[in-house]
Amino acid sequence: MKATAVAPANIAFIKYWGKNDEELRLPANGSISVNLNGLKTTTTVEFSKDFKQDLIIINDKQNKQEMVRVILHLDRVRKLAGIKYKARVISKNNFPTASGLASSASGFAALTVAAVRAAGLNLSEKDLTVLARLGSGSACRSIPDGFVEWFEGKNSDSSYAVSIFPSEYWDINIVSILISEKEKKTGSSEGQKLAKTSPFFSARLIKIDEKIKKLKQFIKEKNFAKFGELIEREALELHAITMTSTPALIYWQPETIKLINLIWEWRGKGLFVYFTIDAGPNLDLICQNKNLRKLINKLKTVVEIKKYIVSWPYEGTRLSDNHLF
Ligand code: PMV
Predict the structure, then answer these.
(1) Cα(53) to centroid of ligand 1, in Å?
(2) Contact of 274 with 229, CB cutoff 8 Å
(3) What b/e sequence results for 219-228 when a residue is b if at least 16 CB atoms lie within 10 Å of its CB, and e otherwise?
(4) What is the pLDDT of residues 23-79, one digit of tens each?
(5) How many whole angstroms from 266 Cα to the centroid of ligand 1?
(6) Residue 161 pairs with which residues in a beta bridge?
(7) Hey, which residues does 19 pair with through a beta bridge?
């Protein structure tokens, strides 16, 4: 059977960085994100007794490293369904991969939902998030709708994601800024393994549950200033950890720092915009919808910005009839 799924990327407001269990991808802490309508992956999966081997094409390319991870994930689905058929997988992103715009999240969310359906399985949303997590941690947050919380959990079954507010709850915009389309030297899976070597990592974990509670409260109250201050501090904390890991990792480029300073300058002059940054040089800017036009006009004056994508909070992963083959 053939199935197609469309999954949004998600941007974390409270970040997942560091694992308690590598193999099960159990995170060291819970995290909170929102789905982005502007960054999506579409994936079609077909299992058939006629296929001699797995064929995986992502963005028109066959990449060995990506293939290994995808085949491992297909094996998880085959095991659950009790089938041995090989698969054909075609996947397309509408944004550059491995550039800090969360491509592994939407990729593994779409793969999970499409492969599960193509294998004839019927899983609950919770079980889909657990399965997606095994492929790529943050992918579990791209499955439920809108604003999503991923519980760290003590075992595989208790480390899952749920929607905490629907996408239309808050009319904020997320502007993903592209200052570099280069593939990162150290991907997030590798970077995460180093988190525990930072002397600041244990200090982060002491306060994280309190931070999660506060963030949920600020979203609930739609308190944009408090929400913004918290997510900026959180992003800087993640990068403080990468920079103080052994070996040290600096994901930023000079343009990243230039933009951070510009955002602080604009805010000082009354434009309410805040940033967050994942494991890469690119920033995501968050503003209220009423300020979007003003922000875009500002961004147009910054020569370092190669491209920007405007999103709003979005639904989770959905099945689609528009197959890619
Ligand atoms: O799921 P991964 O291994 O790509 O890790 C994602 C890590 C961050 O994007 C930096 C943070 C997050 O929670 O999404």
Answers:
(1) 30
(2) yes
(3) beeeebeebb
(4) 999 999 999 999 999 999 999 999 999 999 999 999 888 888 889 999 999 999 999
(5) 28
(6) 150
(7) 27
3-state secondary structure string across 171-239: CEEEEEEECCCCCCCCCHHHHHHCHHHCCCHHHHHHHHHHHHHHHHHHHHHCCHHHHHHHHHHHHHHHH
Q: For the chain, list residues with pLDDT below 50.
A: 98-100
CA distances from 176 to 144, 217, 245, 305, 310 (A): 21, 25, 26, 10, 6
Three-state DSSP class for residue 265: helix
- Residue list, ligand 1 pocket, CB within 6 Å: 12, 15-17, 31, 102, 104-105, 136-138, 188-189, 192, 278-279
Neighbour tally for 96: CB within 10 Å: 19
The identity of residue 173, as a single letter, is: N
Quote the tokens at residue 128. Answer: 């889909």
Q: What are 125's two structure tokens?
A: 């949303």
Longest pairwise C-alpha distance within the chain = 64
Q: Which amino acid is at 45?
A: V
**What is the rounded CA–CA span in Å between residue 160 and residue 149?**
8
Residue 103's pLDDT is: 67
Closest ligand 1 atom to 14 CA: 13
Rounded to the nearest angstrom, the distance between the alpha carbon of 51 and the centre of ligand 1 is 33
Find out whether 79 and 37 touch, Cβ atoms under 8 Å. Answer: no
Give how far Cα 321 sits from Cα of 5, 74, 316, Å: 8, 21, 16
Contact 145, 163 (CB under 8 A): yes
